[in-house]
Amino acid sequence: MGSTPLHRVRVAAPLAAVAALLLGLGVVVAAPHPRPACAASPHAGLVVDTGPHTYRYCVSVPRSGVSGTDLLHLAAQRSGLTYDLGYGGKAVCALHGVGPGGEHCFAAGKPYWAYWHLSGNTWKVSQVGPASDRIRPGEVVGWSWGKGGSNPASHARPPVLSLAQVCRHASAAGAVRPALDEVGDDMLTMTPDAAEAIRLLVDQPEAPE
Hints:
This protein is α+β, with helices and mostly antiparallel strands. Helices cover about 25% and strands about 20% of the residues.
């Protein structure tokens, strides 16, 4: 099958740590142009529960919404989520490296990714697959890895997280990267050693919960 390319999962280091390192290395940084507040654009929440860890993604989506698979693609593009689809792109086989590869990834009695919609404070099993679903601004969907037998409702659920909780966590985790992204080559002066130190600090693997 044509598997979606994997994207390295990254999360920015705390802004204060980067700022301290920049000052310590004598780096001169011009102030970036202010960017619009996160609340200015509509978002949907995505919660991925692998069992040991839970990942949150606050994804900017058009007001008309996107499909469930498009939401995964957007989270991969912007936040480094990795995923693998099967059955002609209609089913999710793996998320964050958890789950089997291959076009036909479901097997009787084996764990699988269950797909959920948050309704109030309750996760409800999606009645359609992600390719046929429509996720609109303000909604939160989740994926959880585990066994559910013939009844998907018996499958382990993700933790209940509101859109505000998802987006607040995502904004705090990624605060420094947009700031660094806005510093162009003409505004940043540093030695190669300093640049490498910044890269190693910022490109830390995501610290899941």
